[in-house]
C-alpha cells in the first residue's frame, strides 16, 4: 500500500473532472493529487484519513479535500466481504484553481471564492446547514459541459460563501513532510494495519515489525510523518469507533464497547474518551438520547441538523491531546 501521487486525466474540453463511483468498496490506497476534491458519499460508511487526522463518514456526508493532501476513504470491513451485496456510491469533482480554473477564479467577481479555497487548504466536511444545497448543486453540475458547467461551478462556490457557516479543518497540517515511495509503502502499511486491528491488542513491536523497524525507530518515524505519536493515532481510531457503537445501542454495556474497540482497561477507556470527546461515555450517551428525545418531541427537523452538528458524536475533527495520551 503506497502513498500514490495521482495524475487526474483532464479532458481538453472540461475544467472540472467528474467521477461516479458504484463499487463494493472505496479505493483502499492512501493517495494524493494536485486537484482539490469534492466528494458526496451517496451510500456507504467507514473511516476517512486525511493528512494526519481520522474521521468517520457515512451516507449524506460531503467532504472537500485540499490539493496534495494524502487521503483515503477506508470502507468498513463488511464492504470487503465477498458474500456481501453492499455497495458504496459517491459523486466526486476534481478541479484545479491554479491551472484550468485560474482565469475564472482570478476575475474580480470570483476573488472571494478564490480566497475561500486558499483559506481552506486543509479541507473540511460541509456543514449540515448547507449540505443539501451543496448536494443539489453537485447534482446539477454533474453531466453539464461548456458554459453550463462554469455556471454551476460558480453556484457551488456561492454555496460555500453562505454567511454564518463554520468550517472545521479535516487535517491539522496542510502539508506533511515529503514522502518517498519507500516511506509511503511503510506508512501505508501502518495505516492499513491499524484500521484492520484496532479492536485487538496491538503491541508496539508488532506494528514496528510491519514497518521493518525497531520500536524506538518506529516511534520517531511515525511522529515525524504524521505529527502524532502512535498511541495518539490509535486511540483516535478506537474512540471514533466507540462513539459510533455507543449511539447505535447494539452493545450490552459501555464496558462491552470498550473491549470491542481494543481497550483492555475500562479505566483507560474512560480516561481517553473524556480526553478526546470532553465528556464521559455515559454522559455522551445521555446527551445524545436527550437530543433525540427533544427533537422527536418537538418534531423540529431543522434543529436535528443543528444538534447533530454541535453534538460531540458528530464532531469528527476531534484534536488529539498527545501530551496526555502518550503517557
Q: pLDDT below 50 for ≥5 consecutive residues: which ranges?
A: 295-327
Predict the CATH topology of the largest domain.
Jelly Rolls
User: What is the gyration radius calculated from CA atoms?
Assistant: 20 Å
Largest sheet: 5 strands, antiparallel
Count of domains: 2
Task: Label the overall shape.
Answer: globular
Q: Distance between termini?
A: 30 Å
Record the strand order, biggest sheet. 2-9-4-7-10
User: What string, H for helix and E for strand, traces the elements in order?
Assistant: EEEEEEEEEHHEHHHHHHHHHHH
Helix count, per DSSP?
13
Layout: helices, strands, pairs:
Layout: E1 4-6, E2 16-23, E3 31-33, E4 36-43, E5 46-50, E6 53-57, E7 62-65, E8 71-75, E9 88-95, H1 102-105, H2 111-119, E10 124-125, H3 128-141, H4 146-160, H5 181-197, H6 204-210, H7 215-226, H8 230-248, H9 254-260, H10 266-277, H11 281-298, H12 301-310, H13 322-325
Parallel strand pairs: 1-3
Antiparallel strand pairs: 2-9, 4-7, 4-9, 5-6, 5-8, 7-10
Q: Could you explain how this protein is built, in words?
A:
- GO terms for molecular function: DNA-binding transcription factor activity; sequence-specific DNA binding.
- Keywords: DNA-binding, Transcription, Transcription regulation.
- Pfam families: Cupin_2, HTH_18.
- This is AraC family transcriptional regulator.
- This protein has 327 residues and is α+β, with helices and mostly antiparallel strands.
- It is 45% helix and 16% strand.
- It has 13 helices and ten strands.
- The strands form three sheets. A five-stranded antiparallel beta sheet has the order 2-9-4-7-10, covered by helices on one side.
- β5 and β6 (53-57) form a beta hairpin.
- The longest helix is centred in the last third of the chain and has 19 residues, at 230-248.
- It is globular and about 60 Å long.
- Mean pLDDT is 81; it is low at 295-327.
Amino acid at each position: 500500500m503506497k502513498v500514490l501521487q495521482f495524475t487526474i486525466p483532464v479532458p481538453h474540453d472540461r475544467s472540472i473532472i467528474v467521477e461516479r463511483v458504484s463499487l463494493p468498496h472505496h479505493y483502499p490506497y492512501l493517495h494524493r493529487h494536485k486537484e482539490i476534491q469534492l466528494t458526496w458519499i451517496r451510500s456507504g460508511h467507514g473511516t476517512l484519513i486525511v493528512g494526519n487526522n481520522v474521521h468517520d463518514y457515512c451516507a449524506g456526508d460531503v467532504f472537500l479535500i485540499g490539493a496534495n493532501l494524502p487521503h483515503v476513504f477506508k470502507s468498513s470491513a463488511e464492504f470487503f466481504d465477498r458474500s456481501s451485496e453492499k455497495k458504496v456510491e459517491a459523486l466526486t469533482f476534481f478541479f484545479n484553481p491554479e491551472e484550468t480554473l485560474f482565469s475564472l477564479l482570478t476575475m474580480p467577481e470570483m476573488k472571494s471564492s478564490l480566497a475561500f479555497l486558499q483559506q481552506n487548504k486543509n479541507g473540511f466536511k460541509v456543514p449540515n446547514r448547507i449540505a443539501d444545497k451543496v448536494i443539489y448543486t453537485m447534482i446539477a453540475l454533474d453531466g453539464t459541459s461548456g458554459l453550463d458547467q462554469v455556471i454551476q461551478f460558480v453556484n457551488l462556490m456561492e454555496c460555500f460563501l453562505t454567511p454564518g457557516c463554520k468550517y472545521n479543518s479535516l487535517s491539522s497540517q496542510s502539508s506533511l513532510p515529503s514522502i518517498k515511495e519507500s516511506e509511503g509503502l511503510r506508512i501505508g502499511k501502518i495505516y492499513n494495519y491499524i484500521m484492520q486491528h484496532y479492536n485487538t491488542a496491538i503491541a508496539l513491536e508488532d506494528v514496528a515489525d510491519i514497518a521493518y523497524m525497531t520500536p524506538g525507530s518506529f516511534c520517531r518515524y511515525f511522529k515525524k510523518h504524521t505529527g502524532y505519536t502512535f498511541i495518539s493515532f490509535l486511540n483516535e481510531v478506537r474512540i471514533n469507533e466507540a462513539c459510533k457503537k455507543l449511539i447505535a445501542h447494539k452493545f450490552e454495556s459501555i464496558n462491552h464497547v470498550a473491549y470491542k474497540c481494543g481497550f483492555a482497561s475500562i479505566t483507560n477507556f474512560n480516561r481517553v474518551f473524556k480526553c478526546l470527546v470532553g465528556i464521559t461515555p455515559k454522559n455522551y450517551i445521555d446527551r445524545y438520547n436527550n437530543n433525540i428525545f427533544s427533537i422527536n418531541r418537538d418534531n423540529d427537523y431543522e434543529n436535528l441538523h443543528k444538534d447533530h452538528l454541535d453534538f460531540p458524536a458528530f464532531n469528527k475533527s476531534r484534536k488529539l491531546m498527545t501530551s496526555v495520551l502518550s503517557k
